[in-house]
Amino acid sequence: MKIARTDRFKKAWRQLSANDKRLVHKAIENLAVNMSYPSLRVKKVKGTGNIWEARASQSLRITFQLDADTIVLRNIGHHDEALGQP
What we know:
There is one protein chain. The chain is about 35% helix and about 30% strand. It has about 90 residues and is α+β, with helices and mostly antiparallel strands. It has one domain (about 1-85): RelE-like (YaeB-like fold, 2-Layer Sandwich). The longest helix has 16 residues, at about 20-35.
């Protein structure tokens, strides 16, 4: 699948530590190849129509939408940050 990033995702990415960026990069690679990859634990965000979340680590979350053959990365951050504004 293709990957696209929103401006909000890009801004949040710049604020991550180098270690968090490494974890997120690996999670995005796995997401692009296999959304059912076990460690991602992909699920819909409650109360939203078409927004999903995936785990990059125990506390880091990625929110995204599916648009045909593209994964649109919406937000990234620790659990409450990312899911507060998916």
